Amino acid sequence: MNRKLRLMIVTLFILIVIAPTAILAEISVGVKEGDWIEYQVNFAGNPPESHDVTWARMEIVSVQGPSISLNVTTKFSDGTLLNEMVTLNLETGQLGDDFIIPANLNSGSTFFDKRMGNITIDGVEDKTCAGATRTVVYASTPETTFYWDRTTGILVAANSTFTGEFNYTMNTKAAKTNMWQAQMFGLDPAVFYALVITAVVIFVVIAFFVIRRKK
């Protein structure tokens, strides 16, 4: 086998095997099967039919590479519930209403949305989400400012203003989730309970010596 032929084979191997793997490695999926999150939604104005949402729940049914299957339950202002299965793909930009984006993005990072093209992360900040302080990334489209939990890539808040035929605003905020624990008095539950136990132990020791001294 001559040198040129060997070089062609090695190049072809890199293009077929290594290059796609490198591309896929850039997309980090931060959610897993069984994760769920609930949202409280407030709207004002004149939303179109099926946009008068007051509550929603999203549960991760399965994760296969960049493909994520969701069970989404939506509650409307008249109390009606809609349950539907949704499939996202972080690689092809099939993101629904930007429910989930790649995890661990930074300010200036870009991800692809099939409906709107490339979206650039505007910044990173700490935000209270579902009872805990989380690091979030945010980005804006002409109608909406989105906030996603940085570690999981899941949507935690969205503020929208729509004009034209329908004039209305919609604010979505994460209320409950099993992906992180709600804090107590600004502390993680483990830290809070450790402090409580420490305080109880100190109280018992002091009480013991006080009683012993009186005797």
Walk me through this protein's architecture.
By secondary structure, the chain is an alpha+beta fold. It has a domain at 31-179: outer membrane lipoprotein receptor (LolB), chain A. 23% of the residues lie in helices and 41% in strands. The chain has helices spanning 3-25, 189-214; strands at 36-45, 53-64, 67-76, 81-89, 110-113, 117-120, 123-129, 132-140, 144-149, 155-162, 168-177. The strands form two sheets. Strands 4-3-2-1-11-10-9-8-7 form a nine-stranded antiparallel sheet, with no helix packed on it. Strands 5-6 form a two-stranded antiparallel ribbon. A hairpin with a 2-residue loop joins strand 2 (53-64) and strand 3 (67-76). The model is unreliable at 12-25 and 190-201 (pLDDT under 50).
The fraction of residues assigned to DSSP E strands is 35-45%
Biggest sheet record: 9 strands, antiparallel
Going by helix content, strand content and strand pairing, the class is alpha+beta
The count of DSSP E runs of length 2 or more, i.e. the number of strands, is 11
The level 1 CATH classification of the domain at 31-179 is Mainly Beta
Give the ordered list of helices and strands: HEEEEEEEEEEEH
Distance between the termini: 98 Å
Q: Which spans of ≥5 residues are poorly predicted at pLDDT below 50?
A: 12-25, 190-201
CATH architecture of the domain at 31-179: Clam
Q: What general form does the structure show? A: globular
Number of helices: 2
Average pLDDT reading:
84
